[in-house]
Amino acid sequence: MLDRLLNDYNQELNYDGIDGKRLAHRLYELSQIGSLSSGGVNRRGFSKEEKEAKALVTSWMTKAGLKVETDGAGNIFGRLVGKDNSQSVASGSHLDTVPAGGNFDGVLGVLAALELVEAWRTQDFTPEKSFEVVIFSDEEGARFSSGVFGSRAYTGLLTEEIMANVRDSDGLNLEEVLEQYGSNLNDFKNIKQRDWTFFAETHIEQGKLLEKHNLPVGIVSGIAGQSWLEIEFKGLAGHAGNTPMNDRQDALVAAGRFVSEIETLPSTVSDTAVATVGKLSVSPNGANVIPESVKLIVDIRDIHEDTRELLIDKIRKQAKQISDERGIEVFIERTSSVKPIPIDTVYKEELKSILKAMNIEPLELPSGAGHDSMNIGLEIPVAMIFARSVDGISHNPKEWTSLNDCVTTIHVLKQFMEKQMRK
Ligand SMILES: [Zn+2]
Questions:
Q1: 216-272 pLDDT, tens per residue?
Q2: CB atoms inside a 10 Å sphere around CB 228
Q3: Are strands 84-94 and 67-70 parallel, antiparallel or unpaired?
Q4: Cα 336 to middle of ligand 1, angstroms
């Protein structure tokens, strides 16, 4: 990975205190934590691998002169004290991954924020306001099948009910997971928000738009809000040999029909809406047993709230209709819901002028993926900057963003954050 990063690196991008080689080494070091033989990584939220990655970045933060604090959700904040320390601006992302994830999703956003601090240090520059480098816990939601978990804890979006009911794949509840991790429920419930006035996140695009336009970096126009429906189809188990075909209540057949119907629904509400079933669990899951229960999660997103709600409604109705037709039961629960977040024109215009000055065509693109910025955007203004993803691949060991694109994106972030500090 390190060779591939450095091989085609354009040294001319090392200016303004930003150092591509340092970034490449850090990307590489993080890729070794939870590494898989496939080349990807597995750093589930609240796992020892996620914690190890945080510890490594924390050590870099400390070396760079940041004062590091952790909250009850394991979110980490490294503070660079500015001329005015009464408030701060912040930037960051996450270090956890999906199972068999890639080496740039989240990591780039954390290292980008830290690279700003390194650059300012080289330039002997003290920012006008304080600046915080942020690592949110369990962004991917792989721990509890519940996305952007750390930033939801931070913004107080986790209800008592969610906190009481979440279980990980080993059946551990929140309290048990936190204790294993080294935190506790009390600290988790009493997280104090920081003094940020603005938050920016750098992230890989996870799509092909920038690649299509041959652009290294782009401006996020708005962040789609993600909602999860947990659905269980419940039929009746039976012997695969002795139960006639016309006398079955097969939960998997119902679920299968439902999944194929889902593909047709998003385009009926908007051009930007999407819905996916990526996780199914079949019970009893035996080759010669008719499936009694299928639990699945539908991930539903749009950048407009009204159309997303309409889509959720249609999906619920579809699940009910299919289960009615097949004489089985269906249970539907909405387990997560994040508001879509528009990005303020002021920030988009500032980014446009930065990109123009760098001779990069300013392209605006929506973020279909959920990010911690969505939660932070409910409290304070946020902006996002995307770096080009090769072939649009993400959540996959093949995920790749060239070092040139990473560094170009960090240059954009640096100028942008300096602008925010002068406000
Ligand atoms: Zn991410």
A1: 999 998 898 889 999 999 999 999 999 999 999 999 999 999 999 999 999 999 888
A2: 22
A3: unpaired
A4: 17
- Could you tell me where in the chain the CATH 3.30.70.360 domains are found? 225-337
- How far apart CA 239 and CA 256 sit, in angstroms, is 20
Q: Does domain 225-337 have CATH number 3.30.70.360?
A: yes
**Which residues on neighbouring strands pair with residue 40, listed in sequence order?**
none
Q: Compute, in angstroms, the gap from residue 205 CA to the centroid of ligand 1.
A: 9
Distance 321 CA to ligand 1 centre (A): 35
| Cβ(103)–Cβ(95) below 8 Å | no
pTM for the whole thing? Answer: 0.82
CATH number of 2-224+340-421: 3.40.630.10
In this structure, the strands spanning 329-337 and 67-70 are: unpaired
3-state secondary structure of 233: strand
For 238-272, b where at least 16 C-beta lie within 10 A, e where not — what string? beeeebeeeebbbbbbbbbbbeeebeebbeebbeb
Which protein residues have a CB closer than 5 Å to ligand 1 (ion)? 105-106
CA distances from 137 to 94, 305, 346 (A): 6, 26, 29
Q: How many residues does the chain have?
A: 423
